[in-house]
Amino acid sequence: MVKEIDALEENQTRDFPYLPPGKHALGCKWVYKIKYHANGTNERYKVRLVALGSTQVQGEDFTETFALIAKMVT
Hints:
Elements: H1 2-10, E1 28-36, E2 42-51
Antiparallel strand pairs: 1-2
């Protein structure tokens, strides 16, 4: 995990924006998942970073909900 974060900083693909006065940043956590083959052996490891939105207050911290999901319709 440290190698991936170091690579992001080295390539300058991540930045830390300043928050407006009186505001606080949301917490986050890493969610790990192991994908398996049908015979039970490990196929790959997956990880994602999720925001902890449970500390938000509607009308104060946000006014609308945004979910980054793409649905392909054929």
